[in-house]
Each structure stands twice: as C-alpha cells, then as structure tokens.
Amino acid sequence: MKKSLLITLGIIVLIFAFPFFNLIRWTFQEKKPLDVLILDKTVPTLDRVNHKSLAWILNNDRFVKKEKKSSYSYKKDYYGFAPTRPLKDRGNTKNEYHLSEMLDLPEKTDAIYFADTYGVFFNDWYVGVNKSRRSRKIYGGMNNTDYLLVNEMKNRNKLIILEYNTLDFPTPEFESYRTQEKLGIKISGWSGKYFEKLDTTSKNFPVWMTAMYRKEYGKPWTFEKPGIVLLSDKHIMVLEEGTHLTDARPFIHTEAENASKYGVSETVAFDKWFDIIDPLESNVISNFELATTALGDTLLGDRMLSSSFPAVTQDAETGRVFYFSGDFANNDVTYCLSRLKGFNGIKGINYSEKPGDTRRFFWLYYKPLVKTIFNDYYNSLAGK
Questions:
Q1: For residues 166 and 116, what is the distance between their CA atoms, to the nearest angstrom?
Q2: What pLDDT sits at residue 285?
Q3: Is a pLDDT exceeding 50 seen at residue 10?
C-alpha cells in the first residue's frame, strides 16, 4: 500500500476518532445537578433559536435536571410559547407556571433564565401577511407571575439572569418598574440593532421603521450603508456608517480583569438587538461601545444617550442577579456538538480571527460567560 494512501487513511481515522473520543469523555463527565427554569415566549419556529444556545451550553458542561439526572432539551425544557407540528397549521401550546406555584416553584428551582419575553406577533406567526407595519401581539410580555417568580427567587438568594427586552414593550409598565427595582437597574426606553445594510430592499429588513422615520422627520428614508437603528416608544434615530459611525458594528468590550474572570474575549462584535440601560449601583461586567463620529455623538447627546453603555450588569448586593442588555441567547448552534466535551468551536470554520466577525460572539463571549456564571453558582451551592 502506498505511503500517501496510508497517510490519507490515517487522517480519516483521526477525523472520525476525535469526535468519538470527545463524545465518550462527555458521556462519562461528572454530572452537575441543577434545576434551571428557562423562559422563552418568542418561539415562532420549531428551531427555538432564542434559547437553543443556552441549552447547548448547559448540556455541553453537563448540567442536568436533578430528578432524573437527564440533560436539558431545548425542545422541551422551557416555559413559554411552543409551536406544534405541522407548522403550516399554526398550532401551538403554552407551557406556563401559575400564581398558585409561586411558593413551591421558586423553592425547588435553583436558577431562572428569561431568554426572551418579547413574544409572538401576528405578522411573524402567519405566513404571507404584510410585514410593512407592526402588528398585534398574539402572546408575550413579562406578566405579574413572571415578576413574582423573580421576586421569590431573589428573596431566596438564587441565580437570576434576564435578557434584553424583558423590561420593555410589550411588558406592562408596572411589571417593568417592579422588576427593574429587583434587578437594580433602570431602562432608558431605547433599543437598537446593527444592520449590514440599511437599504429597505435587504432581506428581512423591518420596513415599518421607514414609516416611523418619515413621520418623525418629515422626509423619506434614504439610508443604504451599514448602520445602527435606535428606537424608543415614539422615536427613531439612524446612525449610518461613514456619517455617524466609523464602524457600524457595535462591539462588546470587557476590561482585562473581568475578561480573565469570565474567560471572555476583551472585544467582540455583536449584531443583534440590544437595549440601553442605566446600571445605577450595579456592577458592570462589560460595555457596548459604538464607534461614533463627532456628528454621531451629537445625535446621541441630543437624546441624552452615550456611545458607551452596559452590556452585562451584576447586582452589587448578592452577585447572583444578572442582566444581559442584548439578545445574547439568540444563536443558531448545531445542538449535537454540545455532546463533545470541551468543544469550543473551530477557528476558521465556526469563526475567524477578525474582530468584526460576529460569529465570535457565541464562542468567545456568550459561551464562556454563561458557563462561568453557572459553574461559580453551582460551586457556591456545593460549598466548593
């Protein structure tokens, strides 16, 4: 047999042996029993992408449910909106906890993670309807029972993680205000998102924003370059690359001490929705940074906003309450790879070395951040 053929066969064996070996390592890895309640009200597809990557991390790091010691399933182990097959029939169920459970549920639950409470809206749920304007809500928003769960969990000094938009529309103001008090932060009412192109012909561009812009400024939408759109209840602001921004992508920056503590990259790009908050007395772990020009700073200043604002906060009192100011859990991951021990993505395939590559966010920021938070909490409960 020729030497080149032997080398080729050896490479093929190694390619298949590596995942098999890591699957075996993952299978026999020590399990970490921890009951985590995941809430996701924004599930318009069967992919369940708004909490799938969270379940990926829990599964990969061998966190399991206490009763059966079984791994977390992104398909079943969450509360919220659940589409049913076939999706074309638009059937759904709603797995919810109730007021009567607000003593027992917080007692037996170790941690809660509100991945997405925005909900499902008519235009997103029904195929073929007009996407040019906002539509009515079918299901969503944080309610009184959700608040009571947060309240009871904090009273018991348990781990609480809430994400972007939990405190804003369509959550009622009263529930939002009370929850902000519990988290120790204050929302500004502004949210935003990076768009690779502000051209209205771009795929999935929310064209209803152009009508909102025309109504406020009395002129047509003429933006085409990359940029960031900032929204409040009645106002819209557009930051365009080249005019208001030197780089349209928002970056999450983490000081060296926190980057080392949580194992995250000091700088990663982020391309999903975020909201702008005031941390008050909370600890700021990371900040969003917008690369604004002088004109961009002026535009933000007119609205009492800054180009730097918190991305992750932690309450200063217990250290067990976190708020992620972005749609962090919204990552389309390959779930079967979560069963490979220590799998941290493949540079050049899953992400590149370029700072502006937004694929870096999951592998170099979100995954190590969540993993560290949960492991620190688990170890503290175990007295380690």
A1: 7
A2: 98
A3: no
CA dist., res. 2 & res. 210, Å (int): 65
Is the pTM higher than 0.85? The answer reads yes
What was the pLDDT predicted at 16? 52
pLDDT tens for 63-75 read 999 998 999 999 9
CB 116 within 8 A of CB 147: no
pLDDT of residue 96 exceeding 60: yes
Are the C-beta atoms of 279 and 308 separated by less than 8 Å? Answer: no
Confidence of residue 20 (pLDDT cuts 50, 70, 90): low
Instruction: Determine the Cα–Cα distance for residues 308 and 287; give it in Å rounded to an integer.
Output: 6
* 329 Cβ contact list (under 8 Å, min separation 6): 50, 51, 52, 53, 54, 113, 115, 116, 163, 366
Beta strand pairing call for 120-121 and 137-139: antiparallel
Domain boundaries, the chain: 1-29, 31-381
Q: How many CB atoms lie within 10 A of CB 11?
A: 9
Model confidence over 355-384: pLDDT tens digits?
888 999 999 999 999 999 999 999 999 876
Averaged pLDDT score across all residues of the chain: 90
Question: 74 CB contacts (<8 Å, ≥6 apart)?
Answer: 48, 51, 52, 54, 55, 56, 335
Tell me how crowded residue 313 is: count the other CB atoms within 10 A of its CB.
25
Residue 2's pLDDT is 58
pLDDT of 12 higher than 70 = no
Compute CA distances 320 → 95, 118, 173, whole Å.
26, 23, 24
